[in-house]
Amino acid sequence: MSKGKLEKFAEVEGFKHVVQPKLEEVFRKDYFLKGKWNSDFFQNNGPITLELGCGKGEYTVGLAKMYPDRNFLGVDIKGARIWKGAKQSHEEGLKNVGFLRTRIDFINSFFTQDEVDEIWFTFPDPQLKKPLKRLTSSRFLNYYSQFLRPGGWINLKTDSEVLFHYTKKLAEFNKLEIAVASEDIYGSGIADEILSIRTFYEKTWLEQGLRSHYIRFMLNNNQPVTELPDEE
Length: 232
Ligand SMILES: C[S@@+](CC[C@H](N)C(=O)[O-])C[C@H]1O[C@@H](n2cnc3c(N)ncnc32)[C@H](O)[C@@H]1O
What we know:
This protein is an alpha/beta fold. 31% of the residues lie in helices and 20% in strands. The mean pLDDT is 95.
């Protein structure tokens, strides 16, 4: 492991706004902050937005600056990536930002019913060969429905045509409400201040000539999401 990574891990350890649970604290059990993120972590009543697979946390930090009355929690398994957003938010004194280092597969150990207001995915791995590992597959959407409040939006920004069309098709198949679906947010002119936040991966893909796709939809919490027949 490079020295840089070790230094970043050590620095992240010292940040009070970064939570790094041990496996035994979350595996098949509830983490102690479940249901208490507002009262015990953010110490306010603002709605909570998750950025799942946040990497360096550009959306977590960017949105937190735009919406000081809301809370933003970046989730990623890689501590050296989280370090960037954690350090920036610490240095800028942002009180409405946190980071959680964990596998998204354990996400239901962390949040209780209606605890989360909105979810963002920014340039997740499209899992071309394993659709059910996609973070917007039915398996994961059914996890999120257990803690995303009714009417809470799910936002996906991706360079991957496959992931974009898969997610759109899955939402349509399940008759979920879709607010926006665009294959080219910059070319179509819909990129507002929020959609114009550029993540580390997005910058790389744009430089290579790829387009940024975006879909915003909501779940129907009364009905489980069913996988697309050809992906099962
Ligand atoms: C392609 S990167 C995108 C990072 C960032 N959102 C961006 O746009 O620059 C995908 C990120 O998701 C994280 N990730 C992928 N699967 C995950 C999982 N199951 N649990 C937690 N993090 C995961 C990876 O560690 C990585 O940082």
